[in-house]
C-alpha cells in the first residue's frame, strides 16, 4: 500500500491524494489550487498519474479546493466511480457549474482554453454516488492474501455532508486503518454535529490550515460579531462580509436571525448577494438531517433559521445592483470568501475607501489572495482594474472558521494514541492542507506530544504504508 501526495502538500488548497494498493488505484479528493498565478498554472498541469487507471475517487466535502478538478479528471480519461455523502453530492451540483463559469471567464481573460466544459461536468456528475455516514463501501481485494478493502465515511463537522474517510485493509492477517481528515470542523457550530472522534488509526492524513494557531474563544465570537455590526451601524456605514457560499453564509444567517430576534442589534437591511449561496442555502434546508439537535429543535418549533425580516436574497444582477441604492447602514454578505472573484468585488470597490464602513473576514484567507492582502493591512489594492484605497475598518473573527485550530487538531490526532486513552496503534501522521509553516509546526507538535512519526510531505512525495 503506497500513498502519493499530488496536491495539498504544504499548501492549503488543491487536495489530491493517490493510494495504490498494487492492484487498485483510488483518489481521495481532486481539488482546485487557489490563491496565486502559480496555483492557476498547477490546475492546468497534467495529473501525475493516468486518470484512466483510477478506479475510485472518495470526496471529503464540496469545497472547490477538494472537488474543483474532478471535471478535468473526467476530461483526461477517468471513468470510475465517485463516492460522496448525499449532501455533498447535492452541494457539488450547485458548486461545480458556478466554478465552471468563473474558470471560463478567467480563461477568456488569459486567452486560453477553459480547464473543462459542460460535457466534462455532466460526465463526472454521472459517476457520483451519494451515500450515508458509516455505510460500508466494499472495494474487494487489493491482491494480497486476506486483504479486503473497505471504505467508510464519518462526520467531519466541517460543512454540510463533510466526511472523514476511513480506509481499511488487511496485511498479514492484521486489520490496518488510515484516516483522511478532509477538513475538520470547529465545534460547537450553530448548525452541525461535532467532529467524530477516532481512536484506532494506524495512519492519519490530517489538515493543518490552522496548525500553528489557536482560535479566539468561541463564547466571545457572537459578542464580537454583535459589536462589529453595532459599531458599523452607528457610523452609518456598510458592513461587507466576504463569505464562502457553503456553511459560512448559512452560519451567519443563523447568527443574525438570533441577534435580530433577541433585539440585540438594530434592524438594518441584510443582503445575501450570491446566487451560489442562495442555492446552497436551499440544499441546507433540504438536508436538515445533518444538523445538530438544537438546530433541529428550532426548526421543529417553527423558526425559519435562514430567514428574518429585512433579509433580501439578490439572485439576479439587476437585484445586486439595486443594493447600491439602499441607504447606509446595511450588511452585505457576498462571495467569494477570499475576494478572489464574485460580487463582493463590486462592493469592495464601492466601500473599501469609506471610513464609516467595515470589511469583516470570517474565513481563512489563503496566502496571495486579495482577502489576505486586505486582512494584513495593505492600504491600496487593485480590484477590477482600478486601484482602491483601503480606508474602512478591517476586522477578522477566526473562531467563525469551519476549520479546527491547533488544539482541536491535536485532540483529534491524539485520540489514536495511548497518551490520550486510545488504542495507541498510530504509526505515522501525514500533515497536509496547510501553508508550510503551519504544516511543519503541527507535525513537530504531533511528534513531541505523542511520540509518533509525523511529516509534512512535499509535492509528489510518496510513502509506503
Account of the protein in words:
With 465 residues, the protein is of the alpha/beta class. 32% of the residues lie in helices and 22% in strands. It has helices at residues 37-44, 64-67, 70-75, 86-110, 118-125, 218-235, 248-261, 275-286, 293-300, 317-322, 344-351, 370-375, 406-414, 436-450, and strands at 2-5, 17-20, 25-28, 56-58, 81-85, 128-131, 137-141, 148-155, 163-171, 174-180, 203-207, 238-242, 270-273, 311-313, 330-334, 358-361, 380-383, 386-389, 393-396, 428-432, 453-455, 462-464.
Give the secondary structure arrangement, pairings included.
Elements lengths: L1 E4 L11 E4 L4 E4 L8 H8 L11 E3 L5 H4 L2 H6 L5 E5 H25 L7 H8 L2 E4 L5 E5 L6 E8 L7 E9 L2 E7 L22 E5 L10 H18 L2 E5 L5 H14 L8 E4 L1 H12 L6 H8 L10 E3 L3 H6 L7 E5 L9 H8 L6 E4 L8 H6 L4 E4 L2 E4 L3 E4 L9 H9 L13 E5 L3 H15 L2 E3 L6 E3 L1
Parallel strand pairs: 3-4, 4-5, 5-6, 10-11, 11-20, 12-15, 12-16, 13-14, 13-15, 16-19, 20-21
Antiparallel strand pairs: 1-2, 1-22, 2-3, 7-8, 8-9, 9-10, 17-18
Helix pairs in contact: 4-8, 13-14
